[in-house]
Amino acid sequence: MGTQLGAIDLGSNSLRCLVVDYLDGKLMYKTSGLWITRISEGISSSNFTARRSAVERTVGAMKEALKLFEAFRVEKDGMKVFATESLRAAGNGDSIKKMIEELCEVPIQVLSPSEEAHLSRKGALLGLKECDVVFDLGGGSLEVCGENFAYSFPLGAVRMTNRFDEDCEKIKEETKKALAEAQIKSKSLAGVGGTSSNLAMMAKGIANNEYHPSKIHGSKINLEYLTHTCRRLKALSLEERKSIVGLESGREDIIIAGICVIEALLGSLKHKEYTHSETDLLWAQCASIAEGYGMEVRGILL
Are 27 and 126 in contact (CB under 8 A)? Predict the structure, then answer.
């Protein structure tokens, strides 16, 4: 047994955690958790104030994540807690940050857009070697990062749903407009984030209670599948979508917007497919903890 490391991500749509074991230069997957918190409930084109109910959901999820860390013996000095657009855009983000810090007894790092993008790419490259650009589609924002650039766009699945509901044409138009200004070039593309993970789960027909990162890591997601899946889901009610194998409970109302953003991203970058990575910024944060103690990270074991 090696050194147990853990990271917790206070995202816009969910709170996620990861526990890995550092052993012989590699990070080995031990367990993970995800709770839909929708702390960015109400976010649209501008900043927002996190609602009390959303904060309560987040606090409850944090308590569950900390229980998981305790069960796997992750010590305080072996864990990182961070937030992204969820607290960057929240008008009451500072007070939420203080509340969560008191609960978990470690400082919370609110990542800048650039830091988030680079960590997402670092995490993806731990598990994939054949990509030069990585995108991370979350609830509040879309990050796109290459070796020499990092962009953050207000195109997250929750935000776009609040702005355009399920109007695919408007979502794609808004996405393409934002991406056109950046003029991103890439030879190969990898993707991380909840929408991408759910697309891989649905493609392989894997139920959520059967999740393991090795089952979907490296999956190829193409435009044809995205178009077909979007059309299929739009024909269903929110209640009917809950029965789709692989679609995470609590994501049925934002999945269409997430798919449309990815479709528009692929079109803008002139790619017909991308590679899904289950190693993301949570993995990157665990790697950073190890590196901070002088432990070299050469790869991962799923």
Answer: yes
